[in-house]
């Protein structure tokens, strides 16, 4: 069931998923308003949503032209819907103009509040801070109400699950709810009433699912993300005021974004395309020369942006594990499966001319090998899921020394699909190949494990000390879910997972 959910969600880009989920909540709000369950009328909701969307999308397009870049319309649509949920719905012409201004401020923050191309803060939070402090348009966060809470909670869960940020969201929700509930109890509210008020009337769940979880404003590592969630929860829940600045969800998020920025890559990443190398009949390596050195850890991934015309539903941005070693500052390489029919993104990637410059907006991930090279490891890769392991093994060979004891289980759709074979041979590790037929002329130290799905029995028979190893699994969602389960059945206690959802 989990593998099926991962596969279904993986077919939709994160931007498209956000638009669909937020749009569904807006539709529920309209229905609830028509039934008299919300304070706002259907006309107010419809007019406000249209104004917010038009203002953010048009201003993003104009600002992109001014800054000589290309607008990301799905991102602009997300910003517009969030503006709709944060500011008061209205049908008054003057108030609608201020709502439009809020959308313009949100769009402008993406371009103005950026350091070397990297966003610093959530644009809607910035707009809420600016408009509230100036008293032009006070933030209302009207989406936080008991009627919409079940739908917001389901939508937030979908987004957090898809982005693998459930721990971050739960950290914020639990801590913020606990603090707000205690505050209400201390002023005389009954415990259950306080708990319901905290969840139903404060934008705790909405903030966690749709704003705090934004990848571009989160730090790269999980423990850093949890720390930021805790900081935002405390600032969200404890009242304070300094002149025109007082405790609010937007202030808490902006401060948390600043903390996250201190953790992460402090510049946008520009990569100059060097060339493409065929790895297998269906995969290729795309090599880039970074304009400035890129900081990353072996096993991490980057979000690559390739602007192009006639963008399809998959969008112009995609996450890729980095296959090159962090020690090689002159190269950033990614492995790509070039399936047919190809997405517009992959076609644009294939069509890149040497010397063309593309951008990356984010580098992060926690799929990292132990610092101690003496820890026995078993790695499992499904197809192009081999890429993070190539980076990790190359780093260890060049830096802190070869891993003492590593076994790689490499599952491919055919014997011709063994990508990065020379790099794996150079790593000097034992490789167990899973393929429909046995490959001819396997390198020394490589063995054919068999055809079909990887099983606990086959793993246990091939790797006698499996229980004492730490496991790492990378590849498509279905492969990762299945092999992780088989590893645990075989007695492996610690399994680290990295899957290419939405690849």
From TrEMBL:
Question: Per the UniProt record, which residue ranges are transmembrane?
Answer: 46-64, 142-161, 168-188, 194-212, 224-240
> ATP-binding among the record's keywords?
no
Residue intervals of the FAD-binding FR-type domain = 266-370
What keywords would UniProt list here?
Answer: 2Fe-2S, FAD, Flavoprotein, Iron, Iron-sulfur, Membrane, Metal-binding, Oxidoreductase, Transmembrane, Transmembrane helix
Q: Which Pfam families match?
A: NAD_binding_1
| InterPro entries in alphabetical order | FAD-bd_FR_type (IPR017927), FNR_nucleotide-bd (IPR039261), MRET (IPR050415), OxRdtase_FAD/NAD-bd (IPR001433), Riboflavin_synthase-like_b-brl (IPR017938)
Enumerate the CDD domains for this protein.
FNR_like
* Coiled-coil region(s): none
* Signal peptide positions (record): none
Cofactor (UniProt): FAD
By what name is this protein known? Oxidoreductase
Which species is listed as the source?
Herbiconiux daphne
**Which lineage is the organism of this entry classified under, starting from the top rank?**
Bacteria, Bacillati, Actinomycetota, Actinomycetes, Micrococcales
């Amino acid at each position: 069931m989990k593998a099926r959910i991962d596969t279904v969600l993986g077919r939709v880009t994160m931007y498209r998923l956000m638009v669909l989920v937020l749009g569904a909540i807006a539709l529920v709000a309209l229905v609830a308003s028509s039934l008299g369950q919300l304070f706002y009328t259907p006309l107010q909701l419809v007019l406000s949503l249209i104004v917010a969307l038009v203002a953010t999308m048009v201003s993003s397009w104009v600002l992109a032209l001014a800054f000589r870049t290309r607008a990301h319309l799905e991102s602009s649509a997300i910003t517009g819907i969030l503006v709709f949920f944060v500011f008061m719905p209205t049908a008054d012409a003057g108030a609608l103009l201020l709502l439009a201004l809020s959308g313009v401020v949100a769009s402008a923050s993406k371009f103005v509040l950026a350091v070397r191309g990297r966003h610093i803060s959530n644009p809607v939070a910035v707009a809420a801070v600016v408009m509230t402090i100036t008293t032009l348009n006070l933030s209302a966060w009207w989406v936080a109400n008991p009627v919409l809470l079940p739908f917001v909670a389901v939508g937030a869960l979908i987004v957090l699950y898809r982005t693998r940020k459930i721990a971050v969201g739960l950290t914020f929700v639990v801590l913020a709810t606990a603090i707000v509930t205690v505050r209400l109890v201390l002023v005389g509210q009954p415990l259950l009433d306080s708990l319901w008020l905290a969840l139903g009337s404060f934008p705790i769940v909405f903030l966690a699912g749709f704003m705090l979880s934004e990848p571009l404003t989160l730090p790269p590592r999980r423990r850093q993300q949890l720390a930021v969630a805790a900081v935002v929860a405390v600032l969200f829940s404890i009242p304070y005021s300094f002149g025109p600045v007082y405790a609010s969800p937007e202030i808490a998020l902006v401060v948390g974004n600043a903390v996250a920025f201190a953790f992460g890559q402090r510049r946008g990443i520009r990569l100059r395309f060097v060339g493409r190398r065929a790895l297998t009949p269906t995969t290729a390596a795309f090599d880039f020369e970074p304009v400035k050195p890129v900081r990353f850890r072996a096993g991490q991934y980057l979000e690559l942006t390739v602007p192009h015309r006639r963008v399809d539903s998959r969008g112009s941005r995609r996450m890729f594990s980095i296959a090159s070693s962090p020690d090689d500052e002159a190269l950033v390489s990614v492995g790509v499966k070039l399936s047919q029919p190809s997405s517009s993104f992959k076609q644009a990637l294939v069509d890149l001319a040497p010397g063309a410059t593309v951008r990356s907006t984010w580098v992060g991930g926690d799929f990292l090998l132990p610092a101690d090279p003496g820890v026995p490891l078993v790695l499992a890769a499904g197809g192009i899921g081999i890429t993070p392991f190539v980076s990790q093994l190359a780093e260890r060979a060049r830096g802190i020394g070869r891993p003492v004891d590593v076994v790689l289980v490499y599952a491919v759709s055919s014997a011709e699909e063994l990508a990065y074979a020379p790099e794996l041979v150079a790593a000097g590790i034992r490789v167990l190949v899973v393929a429909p037929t046995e490959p001819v002329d396997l390198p020394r130290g490589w063995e054919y494990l068999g055809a079909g799905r990887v099983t606990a029995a086959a793993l246990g028979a091939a790797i006698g000390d499996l229980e004492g190893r730490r496991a790492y699994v990378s590849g498509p969602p279905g492969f990762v879910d299945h092999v992780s389960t088989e590893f645990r059945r075989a007695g492996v206690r610690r399994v680290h997972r990295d899957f290419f959802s939405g690849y």
